[in-house]
Amino acid sequence: MKKLKKADILVIILLVIASFLIYLFTNKLPKEENNISKKVVITVDGKIYKELPLTNNTKEKIDINTIYGKNEVIIENGKVYMHESNCKEKICMKMGKISIAGDSIICLPNRLMVKIVSDKKNEDSLDLIIK
């Protein structure tokens, strides 16, 4: 096995520092603002099925039975997730818990979308991108 030279060690250290800096400056994790009121909007086939406020105290079990299928959405501790679905692949159940405005859970076979929306309009967000 070859012995590392000083230049090799320097390159490794520079790569680790560069990786850390890239992670630090490009980390796009949303910053949650606790003072923003959020709500959960459930739509079936593009039409609003139910709207509920999303707080840490909200605790709901919502059964959605439509001609497209059956789903069960759970809201608790400020998070929303798909507990049950009768769709074939169950991808919507694997999407996990959502809690940030803009997050969504979609069940395509059952034409269901669960989305978290905020009352505050973000001026930094884009409405349209034209190429």
Automatic annotation (TrEMBL):
This protein's UniProt keywords: Membrane, Transmembrane, Transmembrane helix
CDD domains xref list: Lin0431_like
Transmembrane segments: 7-25
InterPro entries named in the record: NusG_2_sf
A Pfam entry, by short name: NusG_II
UniProt entry tagged with the keyword Transmembrane helix: yes
Protein name from the UniProt record: NusG domain-containing protein
